[in-house]
Structure formats: C-alpha cells, structure tokens
Amino acid sequence: MTLTRAGKCLGIVPLLMLLLWLRLHGVSDYPYGDTYTFSARTAIATFDEELSVDHFLQISNGHRLLFSRLVTAFLTITTQWDTRLEVVLNVVMAVVNVWLIVRLIRHFAPSVVPLAWFPVGLFLLSVDQMINWISGVQNLWHFTLMCLLICLHLLLGENRRGWRMLLVAGICAFATFSAGNGMMLWVCMGIAMLILRYDRWTIGVLAMIGIVAIMGYLTDSGIGLGTSKELAEYGQISPPQFINIIKAMLIFIGRPVAENADIAQLTGLLGIGLLLWAIILPNSQKEAQRGVWLLATIAVYTLLSAVQIAITRVHHFDVTVAIAERYLAISLPFWAMLCAIWLIRLDIHRRYAKTIIPFIVVLAICTVHLVALLYQAGRTDWDVPVNHVMLEGECIRRYPVTYSGICGMWIVPDATLTEQLMERRLSGFARNEFWTVEKDE
C-alpha cells in the first residue's frame, strides 16, 4: 500500500508542473495560434447560424477538424466561446489518456502500476509541448490518442466481439475526420485485433469500414499524388526524398529526449532499437507478453504518424518540421510506451539482477527527458517567450481602444477576424471592459 500511495503521489507531480506552467505562462482569454486561423471562423459561423456539414468537414492544413470544430461550436453556444475552456479540455483529455494507459498496464502487469504513474504522466503531460496546451485547436492530437486508447480497452473484452468491433469502427471514423493521423488508428486496430485473436471475418469487416472512412476523408481533400497546382499546399505528396524523410522520422521520434535535431536523429534511432528489443525479449508470462505487444501498437501509432508527417511536410518545410513542438503530442506517447513496456518486463518474482535492466531503461528515459526540458521548456516554435500567449492576448484585449495591430513587439494576428469577434462579443470580448462599456453606452 505504501508503494501504491507513493507512486500515485509521484504521478501527480507532472500534472502539478503543467498546471503551474499554465498559470504562469499560458492563461489568456483570447484565441492563440491556429485557434485564431481555424476555430475563430467556426465560432463566427456558429454565432451567425451559418454552420454546415461542409464547414465541419473542411480541410485545414491537411486535417479535417470535426472534434475541434464541434467543441468550438458548443462553447460558442454556451459560453460565447470562452477559449480558456478549450485549454482546460486539452489538460483534461491528457489526464484521461494517462489514466487509460495506466489501466492498460494494470490489465497485464498490476504489480508495476505504482511505478507507471510518473513516467506516463511525465511524457503525456510534458510542458515541452507548449502550443498543444495553450492553443485550443490542438486538442485534435489529444483526442486522437484518447480514441486509440479507448478502442484498445474495448477490444480487450472477450464477449460480444462483433459489437465491440463496430463501436471501435465508429470511434476510429470519428478520429479519422478529426485529425489527419486519425487514419493511422485503423492500422493499429487491425494489429491489436490480431494480437487479441479476433477472427478473420471481424478483422475483415473493420478493414472494409476503415477503407471507406479513409476514402471519405481523402475525397475532395486536395491531398493526393501528383504535382497539380490545385493540390493543397500542406497536403501535397511530392516524390519521396528518402534521406530527408528518414531523417525527419528519426527527429520526430527522438525530439522529446533531445536538445537539437542532430541529437534527435540518434535518440530516435535508439528509441526504435529499445522498442524492438523489448518486443522480441522472451517472457515466461503469456499475458504479460501480450501486454507488451498491445502497448507497442501505441508506439506504432507514433511511428506511422511520423511517416505520414514526413511524407506530407518535408517537401515544404524540410526536416526541421519534425522538431516542431506541435507534434510532440504524437511523439511523446512513444516514449511513454517505451517506459510502460519495459515496466511490464519487470518481474517481482525474479532475482534482482534480472529486473534491474528494465528499471534502469525507464529511469534513463525519464532522466534524459527532464534534462532536455532544461533546454527546451523555455522555447517555442517561433522563438518567442513562453508567455507569448499572454502578451499577444493583452494586445488583442486593447484592440477596441487602439485599433492597432501592433503592440510593441506583439501583434494582433488577424484584424478582420478580431473585429468580427468584437462585433459578436465572442471569446474575451464577451468580458472585455474596453468593448462592453462602449457597447453598453
């Protein structure tokens, strides 16, 4: 009991660190980052009663944002689009994901659960993925991972497997139309069903539903093969640049435990090696071995996402795109799964000498990530201070008085959208004293 309590207390530390960071650097009453570009238009369309199916399913930077747009529409109706609640939702979903992963570990190796809370929380709640916390539209990454974890839990049941498969198919379809890498869930579910020994007919039905969903996602999306000028800029798939694509994949995987792109290539290769080692190691307990393989499907989700992002982004942004903090919500689970898999490898019934290696691997991974945070936690994609969201928010707050898009070093991202939000009293303008007083008068 003492170890269990200590494990839970230590597991809360990453959440406390995240909440403290948000309190100091990430609280704003106004949209930030891509939330301005995409979600603001959804909020305006909701207010104007102009929402349509096409709006919810339209492509944005290669993604369909169904879940994120539904959240924005709901908050617009209920709270005049309080963007702070989208930030809260990001944290809530991440916490749920930590809990879902620990539950998976408990299913296969309950004895190591006290040791699992901290490493899983450390990666999934890492402050390193800054923009994924403070920009509401980034909930697409947390949502896709949550769908994957829920589906794995559903597949674990032994009874009524046909119904479970149909429910999993529905969740995967929702994820597919909510993020570009949602398509990867279909492959992961196929692998998981093979591991859990679902019959071929059930797997075949899931595959057919998945093909239909993916075709629906790609239809009229502007994403495809070719060089036509009509293809969406962020969705082109140019002729493979194999070396750059491989580099981008390794950087993508290694970024959470690396200070720069060169080191990330090496740590990415090391991480993949540790994953393969953990998978092929023999285990006397069949249930634990199955747990290792099932958790590895989450790492496969990261690897497949890395392939997708490398192919569709490298041609435009070069390999440096893989270092972007916005993608950390996908690469961080890879390292969380490495920790989880190596923890499952622990066997309390074996001699100390045979359990020390998995423990050292987990400890080393967590330590290296903490060291990397010393260099990365104060940086952003755009080389601006970590409290940029607050500084930019203050600039937007003053816009009804200044009508200036520049406040010292900070800018109002889009004056037209800002004025439309002002007119409708959406987001922070619902509570902005500069605007509400003038309107009331």
Question: What does it look like?
Answer:
- With 441 residues, the chain is mainly α.
- It has two domains: 2-376, no CATH class; 388-440, no CATH class.
- It contains 20 helices and six strands.
- It has helices at residues 2-25, 34-47, 53-57, 66-79, 83-108, 113-124, 130-134, 139-155, 161-176, 184-195, 200-218, 242-254, 261-280, 286-317, 328-344, 352-376, 388-397, 399-402, 415-424, 433-440; strands spanning 59-60, 63-64, 224-225, 236-237, 406-407, 410-411.
- Strands 1-2 form a two-stranded antiparallel ribbon. A two-stranded parallel sheet has the order 3-4.
- Strand 5 and strand 6 (410-411) form a beta hairpin.
- Helix 5 packs parallel to helix 8 and helix 15 packs antiparallel against helix 16 (352-376).
- The longest helix is centred in the C-terminal third of the chain and has 32 residues, at 286-317.
- The chain is globular and about 70 Å long.
- The termini are far apart.
- The model has no long low-confidence stretch (mean pLDDT 83).
Structure summary:
The chain is an all-alpha fold.
How many H/I helices? 20
* Gap from first CA to last CA: 63 Å
Cα-atom radius of gyration:
22 Å
Give the overall form: globular
Secondary structure elements and pairings:
Blueprint: H1 2-25, H2 34-47, H3 53-57, E1 59-60, E2 63-64, H4 66-79, H5 83-108, H6 113-124, H7 130-134, H8 139-155, H9 161-176, H10 184-195, H11 200-218, E3 224-225, E4 236-237, H12 242-254, H13 261-280, H14 286-317, H15 328-344, H16 352-376, H17 388-397, H18 399-402, E5 406-407, E6 410-411, H19 415-424, H20 433-440
Parallel strand pairs: 3-4
Antiparallel strand pairs: 1-2, 5-6
